[in-house]
């Protein structure tokens, strides 16, 4: 059992990241490390250079993301926490897998289409080959499970396709090299939407900070953002079917359910017939209650840059050891001669 997942250190950790992925990282860490399973969580800093970026901000965001993950409950003594840039095997395996990945597969990736937009000629090559690096990230460690939000499902399917083709093309039938990883997507928070637009996912790249709740937001900011969140004038229905065609209401009910650890149907039983004037303060308070302790820990941890660097350096040492055997076997399977 090996769990591997990553997050780009581009800006703040937001509620979508937390509910869609990080909360599962912590759960899996606590469950599996007790049973001898291994969890590797990394900052995808190599992925972050696929879009225009400021080097100074990337370095600062990398340290801040370590502080954020630890404040959410990732324990560097239980999990291996590191950044890709300190484990060269990620970039090496990506190159080796570039021979197996097909142009047509990458062309179909929705993230590539969304992020490159109409300007494909001007997009970076890294943005196009991004999913091959993501495949290398998980195949390098023979990951069995990859906890992610819904938006990463397609990239994980591609990782499986690459693994399968490589195993078929270069390995004996009874000794495949790569494990096919299974995505773990939380049913109740697979896709948290923007607070300003129920049809767009909550994202770090949205220019409006009002569209997302950041882990770093204080109680006032959280209450304000929830209060200003887009809604419709109808009161809440008594059943989940009643949320059809009401994306903003659906999103807020989903967030409440995920935070409270109950189903959307149970939320509606509590709030049936109530307007957003009553529902929003309750949601805001629930968010503040859960996020405030993490935000407080985060503010403390981010002050000690050296300690954060030490966490990454220690994690990278362990990750390099774990990566070495699969990388060596990949070179060998491809017929590449190495001393
Ligand atoms: P990233 O940095 O965009 O997001 C990190 C994690 O947060 C989840 N997520 C969401 N879940 C629910 N609702 C949302 N609105 C929302 N926004 C983000 C993402 O699904 C993700 O799990 N390419 C990846 C990073 C990566 C990776 C990997 C992940 C690189 N290599 C290998 C898994 C395995 C990314 O940019 O995630």
Automatic annotation (TrEMBL):
Gene Ontology cellular component list: cytosol
Gene Ontology biological process terms in this record: tryptophanyl-tRNA aminoacylation
Job description of the protein: Catalyzes the attachment of tryptophan to tRNA(Trp).
Binding site residues for L-tryptophan: 137
Family: Belongs to the class-I aminoacyl-tRNA synthetase family.
Positions that bind ATP: 8-10, 16-17, 149-151, 192, 201-205
Subunit and interaction comment: Homodimer.
Primary residence: cytoplasm
Chain positions of motif 'KMSKS' region: 201-205
Keyword Ligase in annotation: yes
Annotated PANTHER family: TRYPTOPHAN--TRNA LIGASE, MITOCHONDRIAL
Molecular function in Gene Ontology: ATP binding; tryptophan-tRNA ligase activity
One family name in Pfam for this protein: tRNA-synt_1b
Keyword Lyase recorded: no
Gene3D superfamilies in the cross-refs: HUPs, Tyrosyl-Transfer RNA Synthetase
Motif 'HIGH' region per record, residues: 9-17
Compartment(s) of residence: Cytoplasm
Protein name listed in UniProt: Tryptophan--tRNA ligase
InterPro entries: aa-tRNA-synth_I_CS (IPR001412), aa-tRNA-synth_Ic (IPR002305), Rossmann-like_a/b/a_fold (IPR014729), Trp-tRNA-ligase (IPR002306), Trp-tRNA-ligase_bac-type (IPR024109), Trp-tRNA_synthetase (IPR050203)
